[in-house]
TrEMBL record:
Residues 216-312 form the DHHA1 domain. Residues 14-153 form the DDH domain. Coiled coil: none annotated. This is Phosphoesterase RecJ domain-containing protein. Signal peptide: none annotated. Pfam families: DHH, DHHA1. One of its GO terms (molecular function) is nucleic acid binding.
Length: 318
């Protein structure tokens, strides 16, 4: 870990990218690393962050307005760092910069990570990429703004410390970040729990129209593009739906899918019991963790559900 930061001290240009459809850990890790480097490297360094549009609830830093959302720059970066992305194709529009960079660094915590960097730091028992970064940083050099970014990743990838990836070490790190002055209660409410009226409506529809399979051990809900349009919601408004499905009593696996193109669906999988949903997601080009994973699948809703429930059932009967 120390060697990575040591090498970055000599870099003149550094690029940072997260995965497509950035979530709390992705945004938190990108902001944490960029702010940490800007605060601790000479001012003449170029440090650029590339992300798809950041949801308003995650705009916690004035520097977020400087995040680049196009690939029209002509810089070949000395170092380009991918954060929280399980595979190179998850880098979206910024993949071209990663490919052209002199040195490519891949930092992640997903067990399914393909190790696509020249330098790979994959800590698959860490709760989040932000936890990996905390261990990479000099704790004394973590200021309040960096601490807020790291805390954001911790709370979102652990479901506010309730998922099975929460360890004693995770809680110790959270405590150290709170000691830096992180407004933890406000951040949890405003970035994790709080929903606007439209988000509550679409959540209600998904719960109302959800279906149970496999003798009540699997719950599924889906949204097609026409429904998304009629409700006026975007993918960013769908956060939390899969988690609400997961806590249904008696459910072992929750599945939520929404249409992103003609018969193309983004699929989220969550497990409560012994089913390894990462193993299922990898079969369709996705990945993630044992109890939380995702992928993109093509076909009709019924075909996708049949595929997934068959694979889930195979693990349930073992």
């Amino acid at each position: 870990m120390e060697k990575i930061l040591e090498r970055l001290k000599d870099a003149k240009t550094i690029g940072i990218v997260g995965h497509v459809r950035p979530d709390g850990d992705c945004i938190g890790s990108c902001m944490a690393l960029s702010l940490y480097l800007k605060h601790n490297l000479p001012e003449d360094r170029i440090i650029d962050v590339f992300l798809e549009p950041i949801p308003n609830k995650f705009l916690l830093w004035k520097e977020a307005a400087l995040v680049k959302q196009t690939n029209d720059s002509h810089i070949i970066y000395d170092y380009f760092i991918a954060l929280d992305a399980g595979s190179k194709d998850r880098l979206g529009f910024a993949e071209v910069y990663f490919n052209e960079a002199k040195t490519k660094i891949n930092i992640d915590h997903h067990i399914s990570n393909t190790g696509f960097g020249d330098i790979n730091l994959i800590v698959d028992n860490a709760s989040s990429t932000c936890e990996v970064l905390f261990n990479l940083f000099d704790e004394d050099k973590i200021d309040l703004e960096v601490a807020k970014a790291l805390y954001l990743g911790l709370i979102h990838d652990t479901g506010v410390f309730k998922h099975s990836n929460t360890r004693e070490k995770t809680m110790n790190i959270a405590g150290k970040l709170i000691a830096k002055g992180v407004p933890f209660s406000k951040m949890i409410d405003e970035t994790f729990y709080q929903k606007d009226y439209l988000q509550n409506r679409i959540l209600g529809k998904c719960l109302l129209e959800s279906k149970l399979f496999l003798d009540g051990k699997c719950i599924v809900s889906s949204l097609e593009k026409d429904t998304l349009s009629s409700y006026g919601v975007s993918p960013a408004d769908l956060d939390g739906i899969i988690d609400q499905l997961r806590i249904t009593k008696g459910v072992e696996v929750a599945v939520f899918l929404y249409e992103t193109g003609h018969q193309e669906f983004k699929v989220s999988l969550r497990a409560n019991g012994d089913v390894n949903v990462s193993k299922i997601a990898v079969l369709f080009g996705g990945g993630g963790h044992v109890k939380a994973a995702g992928c993109t699948m093509e076909g009709s809703v019924s075909d996708i559900i049949n595929h997934l429930t068959n694979l889930i059932e195979e693990q349930l009967i073992k």
